[in-house]
Amino acid sequence: MTGYLVQRIGQAVAVLWAAFTVAFILLQMMPGDAVLIRFLGSDFGLSPEQIAQLRVVYGADAPVWQQYLATLGNALFGNFGFSVVSGTPVSQEILTNLPPTLRLAGISFAVAVLLALGTALLATLPRFHWLRDLFQALPGLMISVPVFWLAIVLIQIFSFKLGWVSVINPGPVERMILPIIAIAVPISAPLAQILIRNIDQVSTSGFVPVARAKGASRSFAILRHVIPNALLPTLTIAGVLFGELVAGAVVTETVFGLNGLGRLAERSVRFQDAAVLQAVVLIAAAGFVIVNLIVDLLYPILDPRLRAGRRLPA
Amino acid sequence: MSLKTLSLTRRTFGWIATSLLLSSTASIAFGQEAGTFGGTLTYLEQQPHTVLYPPAGGFYPNGGILNQITDKLTYQNPETLVIEPWIAESWEINDTYTEFTFHLRDGVTFSDGTPVDAAAVARNYDVYGLGDPTRRFPISEVLNNYQSSEVIDPLTVRFHFSAPSAGFLQGTSVIGSGLVSLATLDRAFDALGDATLIIGSGPFVVESQTTGTELVLKVREDYNWGPALHPHQGRAYLDEIRYIIVPEDGVRIGALLSGQADFVRQIQAYDEGQVTARGYQLYAPSTRGVNNQLTFRPDNDLVSDINVRRALTLATDRREIVDTLYSANYPLATSVIASTAQGYIDLSDQLEYNQEEAIALLEAAGWHLNANGRREKDGVVFELTAYESLPQPQNRAALQLISQQWDRIGITLNVLAGDAGTAVQDNLDPQRTGVGPAMVGRADPDVIKSQYYPRNRNALLQTGGVSDKVRNFHDDQLNGLLEAIAAETDPDQRLSLVADVQRYILDQSYTIPIFEEPQVFGGAPYVHGVGFEAVGRPSFYATYIQR
């Protein structure tokens, strides 16, 4: 197990370095740079000499390889430089914006799983067969709801019309309600679909009738035997869902005016704030690496068939 | 009920009594309704502020904050545009406009307790006028020919200029000349991203900020040095101003109308009806500068011919643009600068719409329709590109409408959004962008120089500016006139030079002015006393909430 872990961590470091390097190269290839955008695009009205001077000061004119080594070296020590847009250290920007996004994404994911489980369980009841039919007939129902539109509709109805929650200056709990719904609904849909399909498949496996024959109630059989087995394949799409979560965060944070990594990324892209983007890319890559690692480590725990020392390809 | 609460209540009671006394005396003194002290104003902003270094105050979100936290040497009356005393009680200017001496008010302090004295003011102007390469402070665009400062005594400061600088007195009143404490100027430009480090002497003080989402200002209780002739004196009415960044237009307006916010910036013309229909107040102060316009870059061969530029101006139905996309708050431009700007002259006869004449001019210039219905000359098809300007209201829609209008005479105008980097770079290259949107606000005759002079904003892309992509276009006659505006010391002569520049620019068809750009805000009915400085940035010094 330790050897496996070391190998996985080595892979993770390689992935992070690759992400860092690719991001650096792409940012270098883009026309213009943050110094130009900031001082030429804003209301400074500087002279050519002043712009040239600023470029030297910001190191925007050093050879690319020098800039790369300096950026990489500093990043290893946790120093990501300054945001050209806000004038604050990048590390501070990340510390301010990462926790709220993690909170939002984490809770939304949990809510999405609960929503999906609830929907799937309901769909297994004979009375709610229409629900299952609905989900199977309309695979794109909730998936195709744009987060952006959903967020605006939620605000218009629950905040402006009904006044149940405030969007401006909300309390710590209040501020989370609508964004969580806006992210969780589109994510819960594919989860519910997969669950329903898996529950159907597992229910027809031999061990369920055996369990029933041994005297287990229907609900016990479903909870104890069907659900754990049905959950397994949903883990595989956890990585994909993580991407959805990140994308959802960008949109909801902007619409609801929350601070977070999504909005920071959006702003930095707009102003080509390379230092911030490097850090954001690293964090996103780390997120994917960690999620996939967790999934791989959970598999053997949830599925006894995988504990025979056979490794899944990473 | 502890002793502490009791003393608090007594203090509060004492404060209410004092404020009642104050407001009654104020109303006697000025013969006007006095405001109510206290309360929080929730202000919704569209974009986050950047570094609050005063010379960067031209950016709307920055100006809206800087205006509340810094004072200036002088105050420009927004109605009369006259320069009045503020931190400077009086001043003298020598005959050649190369020496300005200011006598400062006694007892003014920055919020960190340090005095606003001659030494501090001198240091401020040295940084704004000369820049500070070691700390990366850029030069302020409103200070021309600044040479040095001289501290005569603790309350007297003199500034020296290498050439006559008639615009300097007005330059001491703008947001970009807000005074900050030495502690602020001792930091590097990059370290000032935290707004709490911007220490001014204004009626409000930055209490906290969450980068990119929120900023809170607290009133300064001991503030007692507002502009000398301002109807309100003493501390500001409000206790607190809360700036919250809400990028979504619909959310800002919905929040205002549902009572979750009190004041919002940037209401698009198509949303104005929603606000006024509910009895809410729209504010649309003019930015009093160079109008919102589409500027030619004559270095580009397609528009180097004056007759072609003239044709494109004639082919632009400006009235249709204003009527279709904007509202009564966006007056049709009648010159290069706004009708509220200093030195304005009406040149609307130069800006008429006439499609037939446009076609005739193009034909005469050798641009004939090809098989595809596009204008072509010597195998070159007439096709221009412009990037939308994000800060300008509905700029993309306006450019697209111009594109449709030019399409009728066989001219293609591509409107690109582009990422910021590409837009900035291409906008420096006249071959890539033959036209570009432009505007700038400042209530001084110098504003027109700021816009067109190569070493400032260089809207026409002449040689000698930031761009190294310009091959050879420059207009010495225009630049001579612009330099003369900055140096001319006789006020009437300056204004007549501004008139000459407007005439010259339109005679040359260098630009197509579209509308006079306002700043549009919405306010709740219970918000009173909102002021705007000369170029449309809000001032909440005399603002109060009375439901």
Automatic annotation (TrEMBL), chain A:
Which ranges form a coiled coil?
Answer: none
- From the Swiss-Prot or TrEMBL record, give the protein name: ABC transporter permease protein
Give the source species.
Ketogulonicigenium vulgare (strain WSH-001)
Q: Which PANTHER family match?
A: DIPEPTIDE TRANSPORT SYSTEM PERMEASE PROTEIN DPPB-RELATED
Q: Which GO terms describe its cellular component?
A: plasma membrane
A biological process (GO) of this protein is: transmembrane transport
Q: Which Pfam families match?
A: BPD_transp_1 (PF00528), BPD_transp_1_N (PF19300)
**What is the superkingdom listed in this entry's lineage?**
Bacteria
Q: Which family does it belong to?
A: Belongs to the binding-protein-dependent transport system permease family.
Q: Which UniProt keywords apply?
A: Cell membrane, Membrane, Transmembrane, Transmembrane helix, Transport
Question: Membrane topology per the record?
Answer: Multi-pass membrane protein
**SUPFAM superfamilies in UniProt:** MetI-like (SSF161098)
Where in the numbering of this chain does the ABC transmembrane type-1 domain appear? 98-299
Q: Which residues cross the membrane?
A: 12-30, 104-125, 137-157, 177-196, 230-256, 276-302
Does the record carry Membrane as a key word? yes
User: InterPro entries recorded for this chain?
Assistant: BPD_transp_1_N, MetI-like, MetI-like_sf
* Places the protein is found: Cell membrane
TrEMBL record, chain B:
**Keywords noted in UniProt:** Signal, Transport
Q: Name one GO biological process term.
A: peptide transport
Q: Does the keyword Transport apply?
A: yes
Q: Solute-binding protein family domain location, by residue?
A: 83-429
Question: One MF term from GO for this chain?
Answer: peptide transmembrane transporter activity
Superkingdom, according to UniProt? Bacteria
Annotated localization: Periplasm
Cellular component (GO) terms are:
ATP-binding cassette (ABC) transporter complex; outer membrane-bounded periplasmic space
Pfam families assigned to the protein according to its UniProt record, in alphabetical order: SBP_bac_5
> Any signal peptide, and if so, which residues?
1-29
The family note in this entry says: Belongs to the bacterial solute-binding protein 5 family.
Family matches, as PANTHER family: OLIGOPEPTIDE-BINDING PROTEIN APPA, PERIPLASMIC BINDING COMPONENT OF ABC TRANSPORTER
User: Matching NCBIfam families, A to Z?
Assistant: SBP_KPN_01854
**Protein name per Swiss-Prot or TrEMBL:** ABC transporter substrate-binding protein (Oligopeptide)
What organism is the protein native to?
Ketogulonicigenium vulgare (strain WSH-001)
Q: What phylogenetic lineage does the species belong to?
A: Bacteria, Pseudomonadati, Pseudomonadota, Alphaproteobacteria, Rhodobacterales
